[in-house]
Write a structure and sequence with these properties.
The structure holds 2 protein chains of 2 kinds. Chain A has 12 helices and 14 strands. By secondary structure, chain A is α/β, with parallel strands linked by helices. The radius of gyration of chain A is 24 Å and the shape is elongated. Classes of the chains: A alpha/beta, B mainly alpha. Chains A and B meet through helix 2, strand 6 and helix 3 of A and helix 7 and helix 8 of B.
């Protein structure tokens, strides 16, 4: 468990304190994938660095598994940091070392000297990230995705309980991003590792995160389960991120709904309701008519979801809405 | 041998020239080794204590930096003369190879230290941050991250310093430190035997070329990675 208690952070620039993070509290549970999304300058990079104290908070306390990180002296802090893996946007590998030596680096830092033990652990890690064949190459000989895999192998070397991902896919193309995210999800599942990731892409959050916090100008403006935040964004910043992830939806919001007859509704389906023919059944039973204006069916992590924007007409629209709600469908009325 | 005599009529003792070559190489080797041994830690100190670096210590940095700048701003020939008492105290003589090495090292180490500082600053901040995140201590970062990552730049600095030292050793000839510069000065300049001048200059050019070639090779080897 990672716990922030009344943490805030400001930077001193030219004798003035510039706030980077307003006071906040936040708990991140063991084994979850927690996303922090925000625009550049929102403070997300500072927030993730508070966890392993690469940045010291200006006030408040940070606990990891009930150890108060902010109270630790340097040697104890170094020992704790070894249990927290971290990967970076620009990978930050040692250019002068081979892939195998890069992965062995944290083990050596931790005092492992036995060559056989090192080799065995490195082989294991490289196998996990699918780079066994590249052990003797140098980072400059690898593609971006391969470099990030080396970064992941390195971060896992000391069997950490937490993995911090600092914009880990922002420098990668969409396909490579997908494969790196898949690897992260797999690690989370198999090693029961807590993952904290920061990103400016809602799509990254949608694909791997369980919960998300939205950061805007140093303030956590919204937080919750990804499906809740994603399907019912409340804050303007969140809505902007969600709309980026759903371009067609964004377009439909601008559509002149006022010209469409009927009540404009947005239906959200989650999990099993996505797969049942509830809408057709209710329409038959209540005799309403509907016209689909926009829609999408996808997954949030492993949860299938659908969202439809409809124009609904007929005498028994209210009865239909009740029936739909009973079937587990969430409804928002956009226009009446 | 006949051809040499026709070309360089004033050079009657080629053996002396050979010994002068060896003296120059000894002075160069000895002073380069000590320069690196002193300049490398000094460069690391400058880097670490600099503003915004791993162990910012403004006062220590200012003092070290001032000392380095003072030593670098004194022309070598004057530095040598000024340092004579120090030289005598350190090695018991002001003359010969032994007498030449202290001023050479004191003149070159600050220069090399600056080159090391610059090379270390080239190391990506992210790599240092990554090793901090992995729980590396300051010493581990210096030993396993900074120095290996900067070694291309450091070897380039050693090359530049070695070449500067060749120039310094030749200057040492003016105050009796021996070597090729001594020959060029005594025979070539004071005795008007310009063929001595020609040969020593040619030998110095060859030496500098060789140093640059070796240096470049080492640097490219590391830069490729």
């Amino acid at each position: 468990m990672i716990r922030f208690v009344d943490v805030h952070k400001s930077y001193r620039v030219d004798g003035q304190d510039i706030p980077a993070l307003q006071p906040f509290n936040l708990d991140i549970a063991d084994g979850e994938v927690f996303g922090i999304i925000g625009l550049s300058g929102a403070g997300k990079s500072t927030l993730i660095r508070l966890i392993n104290l690469l940045e010291r908070p200006s006030g408040g306390s940070i606990f990891i598994n009930d150890i108060e990180m902010t109270a630790l002296a340097e040697p104890a802090l170094r020992a704790q940091r070894r249990k927290i893996g971290m990967i970076f946007q620009h990978f930050n590998l040692l250019a002068s070392q081979t892939v195998a030596d890069n992965v062995a680096f944290p083990l050596r830092l931790a005092g492992e000297r036995d060559a056989d033990a090192l080799r065995q652990r490195v082989d294991e890690l490289l196998a996990r990230v699918g780079l066994t064949a590249h052990a003797d190459k140098y980072p400059s000989q690898l593609s971006g995705g391969q470099k990030q895999r080396v970064g992941i192998a390195r971060a896992l070397a000391n069997r950490p309980s937490i993995l911090l991902c600092d914009e880990a896919t922002s420098a990668l193309d969409p396909q490579t991003t997908a494969s790196v995210l898949e690897l992260l999800a797999e690690i989370n599942r198999e090693l029961k590792l807590t993952i904290v990731l920061i990103t400016h892409e809602m799509d990254v959050v949608r694909r791997v995160c369980d919960r998300v916090a939205v950061l805007d100008a140093g303030v956590i403006v919204e937080r919750g389960a990804v499906a809740d935040v994603f399907l019912h964004p409340k804050h303007a910043t969140t809505r902007r991120f969600v709309n980026e992830a759903l371009p067609e939806e964004a377009a439909s919001e601008l559509a002149p709904f006022t010209q469409v007859p009927g009540r404009i509704l947005r239906l959200s389906f989650r999990g099993d309701t996505t797969l049942t023919p509830a809408l057709g059944r209710v329409a038959r039973e209540t005799g309403i008519d509907f016209n689909i204006l926009a829609g999408r069916i996808d997954r949030i992590k492993d949860l299938p979801y659908g969202q439809l924007t409809l124009a609904m007409q007929g005498e028994h629209v209210d009865a239909a809405l009740t029936a739909l709600r009973e079937a587990g469908i969430e409804i928002e009325e956009l226009h009446r | 041998m006949n051809l040499l005599q026709t070309l360089f009529p004033n050079i009657d003792d080629w053996g002396e020239l050979g010994r002068a070559c060896i003296d120059t190489l000894l002075m160069l080797g000895g002073s380069l080794l000590l320069t690196v041994l002193i300049g490398l830690p000094l460069g690391v100190l400058l880097y670490l204590t600099g503003n915004g670096q791993l162990r910012p210590m403004p006062k220590l940095y200012a003092i070290t930096s001032l000392l380095v700048n003072i030593l670098r701003s004194v022309p070598f020939i004057i530095l040598m003369i000024v340092l004579m008492p120090v030289t005598y105290f350190l090695v018991g003589t002001k003359l010969g190879i032994r007498g030449a090495i202290p001023p050479l090292v004191i003149g070159a180490a600050p220069f090399f230290a600056r080159l090391v500082e610059t090379a270390l600053r080239e190391v990506q901040q992210g790599v240092i941050e990554a090793s901090q995140a992995m729980g590396a201590s300051l010493w581990q970062i210096v030993r396993h991250v900074l120095l290996p990552e900067a070694r291309g730049g450091i070897f380039a600095g050693i090359t530049v310093t070695a070449i500067a030292l060749v120039g310094y050793t030749a200057m040492g000839g003016a105050i009796g430190s021996g070597g090729l510069g001594d020959l060029a000065y005594r025979y070539g300049y004071l005795s008007y035997k310009s063929d001595y001048m020609l040969v020593t200059v040619a030998l110095l050019i060859v030496l500098v070329q060789l140093l640059q070639m070796i240096g470049d090779r080492i640097v490219t080897r590391y830069k490729q990675r």
